[in-house]
Amino acid sequence: MKYVTDSKEIQAHMLKGFFVDWPSHPNEETHLKLLENSYRIVLAIDEQIQQVVGFITAISDGVLSAYIPLLEVLPEYQNQGIGSELIRRMMAELDGIYMIDLMCDQELQPYYRKQGMQPASGMIHRNYAAQTGTISKGI
Fold first, then answer.
1. Measured between alpha carbons, how far apart are the two ends of the chain, in Å?
2. Cα(9)–Cα(47) distance, rounded to whole angstroms?
3. For residue 91, what are the contacts with CB-CB under 8 A and spacing of at least 6?
4. Distance (Å, rounded) from C-alpha 136 to C-alpha 131?
5. Consecutive H or E run containing 36
6. 2-120 carries CATH number 3.40.630.30
7. What is the DSSP letter of 117?
8. Is 54 buried (19+), middle (13-18) or exposed (0-12) by CB count in 10 A?
9. 72 has which bridge partners?
10. Domain boundaries, the chain
11. Which residues sit opposite 66 in a β-bridge?
């Protein structure tokens, strides 16, 4: 497995199969754009097939706070430590940032607790009409 922290080597066709169980999801081109526009990324690439098999993104002000909105590993690559390695590498990328937040469903909290995170409460707003990433206001 090769891990990279930029999207220079990535093309949209290398991003197939993500966003499992999303009712509607970004296409590969939009996925590539969200990687390119993130503050930091870490990608897991299966070099034998030249496919991205996992990714994590962070958005940040670069000073005090960062948010990890996405961590995904393709289903056939799960339970191999790839997600844990993506988190470890992202936390190293964000070293020195005061607060690193991540929202997840309650059933995923034990996984993130194993990664050194602690549960917290928060509030969210979701615009499901924009879930594909194709509706934006000049972004």
1. 33
2. 12
3. 100, 116
4. 11
5. helix 28-37
6. yes
7. -
8. buried
9. 55
10. 2-120
11. 60, 100
pLDDT of residue 117: 93
**Which residue numbers in the chain have pLDDT < 50?**
139
- pLDDT score for 138: 54
The pLDDT of residue 130 is 84
How far lies 136's CA from each of 31, 40, 58, 70, 72, in Å?
14, 21, 19, 18, 23
Structure tokens at 92: 């190293």
Angle (nearest 5°) at CA 21 between 19 and 23: 90
Residue 136 pLDDT: 60
pTM for this model (two decimals): 0.90
pLDDT of residue 132: 86
Cβ–Cβ under 8 Å, residues 109 and 120: no
Amino acid identity for residue 25 in this structure: H
Distance (Å, whole) CA 133 – CA 11: 18
> 91: alpha, beta or left, given left = phi > 0 and alpha = psi -120 to 50?
alpha
- Count, residues in the chain: 139
